[in-house]
């Protein structure tokens, strides 16, 4: 997402903020924001949580960022663990719901991880995320 974030500044004719820290760690992002005047790009629910706790403010503009497709790779000749199987079931369920909602013109919504059934024990599969 960083290149898209930086391109947003370039298109607006504004200097790209420096220095930068690139991390997938929400804990590190929180620490950096608390100790500096830096910006962070986080999912809306995470931002709302920090805002509701009185820790941070959400800037009043939408980011035109898209997240590219994500893939999941497993070993073709080894069964996945029940936990991995459940995770894959939830990912596929959410991806399917979002695809159906996009087709219907609705906004995607979150699905509780408990909504998917337990995977069969000893499953052997190779799957890819959407």
From TrEMBL:
InterPro entries assigned: LysR_subst-bd
Span list, region Disordered: 101-130
Pfam family, any one: LysR_substrate
Domain LysR substrate-binding: 1-93
Domain of life of the source: Bacteria
Biased composition (Low complexity): 107-123
Protein name, entry field: LysR substrate-binding domain-containing protein
Organism this protein belongs to: Pigmentiphaga daeguensis
